[in-house]
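Record now logged underneath.
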Amino acid sequence: MPVPFSADDTARLHETLAEVVADGATPGGVIVCGTVDGQKQVLTAGTVAPELGELAPTEHTTYDVASLTKVVATWPLIGQTLQAGLGDLDAPVRDVLPPMTGEAPSAEATLRHLLAHTSGLRASTRLDHYRGASAPLHELLCREPLEEETGRHRYINRGYILLGLALAHVNGVPLDELAGRFWQRLGMGSTVYGPVARGSHVAPTEQRIPGAPRTWGCVHDDNAALLGGVAGHAGVFSTPHDVAVYAAGLLDAYARGDVLGEWLRASLVPQAPIEPGLDRGVSWILAAGGHVAYHHGFTGTSLYLAPDAGRYLVICTNAVYYGAARTRIAPLRALALKTISASATWRSGVLDE
């Protein structure tokens, strides 16, 4: 039986969430701490947004989860596609894209390379540079030269854009529909690709131009916006409740050893070092000697898993409302990683030094 988060753990997390809100890092936020057997604690602080007065966020508030799209949509759908025999993890991405003419050096990167950010593709991605082009997007991206040889870790969004295009092509179903079917099976009824209707249940993000309306219900990421809000790297809207349902579903699958669980287990194998103590697995960042997997979203979201301990931790904020979310909520993310890592290393018998 997994041990629930202690009162001390949740008190520290709640206090730190309240502190980052009070410091102006984010209008508010929600943390969900849970276990594979359904134990769950929800912590909230602040408001949804100043425009909505004193309205507090709840586990049912909708957030733009940004790059959590990579692990909530693209990563599980790739696993599902591989299981169906529609692709090979170590085959070039060109095998699951529409046919291309001419040279396409970036198409030689494998699905594993793209998932693990070790593809060597050009890191800077500006889809607006392709406006007016006659060739399809996958071909334009694949014609770009590699910036370096495969193998070194560099966070590259265009790899996930290609994966999103590949998923739609090889499955013969639009990405948002394919993802929607997957989420429905897991009981994630409030998780969708945007846009979503603007309202008090949706946390707004950034005001991109002074005097202009704030981004609210539309994807924050510029490249995803150019793709109509549906992309492999960003575009998903979800609630803390649904992300927790997803996390618990992953942990349950891992414990049972079913197809999704085995895909998670295989994804916890380090693919490349990021920095001392952190490695990149297949999509996930790995910590605590591989006993913790996590991912962040640019808007101020995070998901942490400790599969062997049967625990998860979800953070949903709209910290990008005030600017650079990654620096403003860094103390909260650091505490979340420390908390889940301590439980994972204790459970696995690894000393936390």
In short: The domain at 85-173 is CATH 1.20.58 (Methane Monooxygenase Hydroxylase; Chain G, domain 1). DSSP finds eleven helices and eleven strands in the chain.
